[in-house]
Every structure is written in C-alpha cells, then in structure tokens.
Amino acid sequence: MVTAKVWVMKKHFEGFPQTSDFEMKQEELANLKDGELLLESVFLSVDPYMRPYSKRDMKEGDVMIGTQVARIVESKNPAFAAGAFVVANKGWRTHFISDGTDLNLLPAGWPESLPRSLALGTVGMPGLTAYFGLFEVCKMKPGETVLVNAAAGAVGSVVGQLAKIGGCKVVGCAGSDSKVAYLKKIGFDEAFNYKTITSLDETLRKASPDGYDCFFDNVGGEFAAIAINHMKKYGRIAVCGAISQYNDTVPQKGPYIQFPMIFNELSMKGFIVTSWYNRREEGVKALLKWVVEGKLKYHEQVTERFENMPAAFIGMLKGENIGKAIVKV
Ligand SMILES: NC(=O)C1=CN([C@@H]2O[C@H](COP(=O)(O)OP(=O)(O)OC[C@H]3O[C@@H](n4cnc5c(N)ncnc54)[C@H](OP(=O)(O)O)[C@@H]3O)[C@@H](O)[C@H]2O)C=CC1
Ligand SMILES: CCCCCC(=O)/C=C/[C@H]1[C@H](O)CC(=O)[C@@H]1CCCCCCC(=O)O
Fold first, then answer.
1. CA distance linking residue 21 with residue 26, whole number of Å
2. Of 77, 118, 184, 237, which residue is least crowded by CB atoms under 10 Å?
C-alpha cells in the first residue's frame, strides 16, 4: 500500500493566494489492477493558469490542478515499462495510479544531459504556447518587430528567442533588473524593467520608433492598453494571458481599443495552446532540436521539496522566477 501526499485548495483564493489557503493531506492508493501503473512525481509545475482556473473549475477541498513529470514505479500495463518517465496531469500529488490513457511519454531520444523538467517548460506546454502563439496566432514573418511582456518567464523567454530564430527584432519587458540582464543575455534586442520606467509610452516608442508588427501579450491590463497604440498598420496581437488581472478582486476598467484597432486594421486573437495539440509532436520536436543545438536557452527556478508547492506557486505569481518555475519533489 502506497500513501501519497497531496495539496488541496482549502479555501478559494481571495486576491493574492496565501499559504493558509492550502492544506497538505494524505491519500491511500489502492493495489494495482491489471492495465494500471503506479507513478511517482519527480518534478511538478506551478503555472499562472492555476489561479484563474481554480476560480472557474475547482471547489474548496479539491486537489490543486497541475502537471508533473513522473516516473513509472510499477507497471501492470504492457504498453509502459517501469522506470520510464511521462508527463501527467494529475494535480499536486506525490504518487498516483493511471491506466496509461492520460500519460505522454517523454519524446524518444531525450538527451541524458537535459533535465526532464524541461518537458514542463521550454519543451512542454509553455514552449508550445510560444511556438504556436508566435508562428500561428501572430503569423510572425522575418524582418518584423515583436513585443512580449512577462518576457523572462516560461512562455516569454521562449517567445523572444523564437522571434530571434525567425529573423525578427524583439523587445521585451520584465519586473526586475536581473531579469532584464537575462533577456539581454538570451538575445533580446531591447529590454526594460516595467516597474522602474517613468513612461511605458515613451519606452515603447524609443525601443521601436516605427512600432510593432506582433505583440505577444502575457499580461493584459494597463500594459496592453498602452501597447496597442504602438502597433503598426495590420499588426497582430496574440492574447495569451492576463496575469496582471488574475488576482484582482474588482475587475479593471477599460481599455477602449476600437480606435487603434480600426485605424491600424489590427488583428487580435485569444488562444489556448491545447487547440494546437494535434500538432504537439511537431512543436516538441522543433523546440527540443533548438535546445539541443544551443539556439534556445532555458533557465529554471527550482524549488526543492513537495512541501513547498504553495510557496513556489505564490512566488511565481509575485515574479520570483526567471524562466520556468518548477518544484523538485
Ligand atoms: N493561452 C495559453 O494557452 C497559455 C497562456 N499562458 C499565460 O502566459 C502568461 C505567462 O505564463 P508563464 O510563462 O507560465 O508564467 P511566467 O513564468 O512568466 O511567470 C509569471 C510572471 O508574470 C509576471 N507577473 C506577475 N504579475 C504581474 C503583473 N501584475 N504585471 C506584469 N507581470 C506580472 C512575473 O514576472 P515579472 O517579474 O516580469 O513581473 C512572473 O514571473 C500567463 O498570463 C499565463 O496565463 C501560459 C500558458 C498557456
Ligand atoms: C483568463 C485566463 C487565461 C488563462 C490562460 C492560461 O494560462 C491557459 C493555460 C492553459 C494552457 O493553454 C493549457 C493548459 O493546460 C492550461 C489550462 C489548464 C486547465 C486545467 C484544467 C483542470 C484540470 O486539469 O482538471
């Protein structure tokens, strides 16, 4: 008999999540039936979506939603061998049972030198968000200028580097000077700290006086309201996330976007990366190849121990991560 540790959302978050909103519990797992597998989480992901989706989909007492890289401890399913690693979507759990239908094996030929946690970041859901968001939603073309916010994070850092790989100029912003230095290191042409500038309007104009062809928006709110006025004619905006609004208790007002949308004939499209998962293999293959070639750099903010899941989640929402926020069990 295996006992799993799980984190539940004890109380719905009000404003910014607090550690007291979470509770760690134990779950006794049943013995394996034929066709089933026992898995242990090795790395867990903490992601911004957990905040808005908890409000929309979860009730108090539910296990926190989320994905992990897990190792197969025991297998009674001939399609899976013990010792193999998979990506699963089983929430904040140390151990769990699966019948194999909801598991994705790590890509064949995963290099020994690469951390398997990249399957939750640069070579996983966030990397795919950058890939499909930039190439399919923004329809980025060589020679264009791309703007991305939350640029030092899991999605943004890949967006910027793919824009460079695709032959574009890239401007990014982040919330600390060390993040700005990181953006320069990974090839951003222009980078600024949105918390210390005096005018976003002036900063965006100075970084690209001719404006932006593509805007990959991870933040929404006031930033997006100002950035939309800096789009070039026929510019494209990928509405990926709105992290500046996830902890709001009172909805933000505005903006009124009709004038720049009409005058500049802009396109603005919201998207959810899973809509492109029929092409998941293509995206994973491309991202992994660029990582192996050294063209796509990665950084991970690793928090040790499952017990620190809430702290890692809250820290990521506060901006403590450079690159992907990961918990190592
Ligand atoms: N549409 C889709 O399918 C998907 C959407 N997303 C969205 O992409 C965005 C980025 O996700 P991800 O890369 O995983 O997360 P990150 O790794 O970028 O972590 C979140 C970052 O957001 C920044 N942030 C937090 N609060 C604010 C704020 N009020 N204003 C501006 N920036 C803020 C912080 O960086 P800083 O220090 O720079 O403030 C923080 O580090 C999120 O909005 C997420 O919901 C992610 C995956 C899929
Ligand atoms: C206004 C909210 C915007 C949120 C944007 C975002 O971050 C979306 C993330 C999804 C991503 O495209 C693919 C996912 O896996 C994220 C959603 C996860 C939903 C979990 C569903 C609950 C469960 O697992 O049971």
1. 17
2. 184
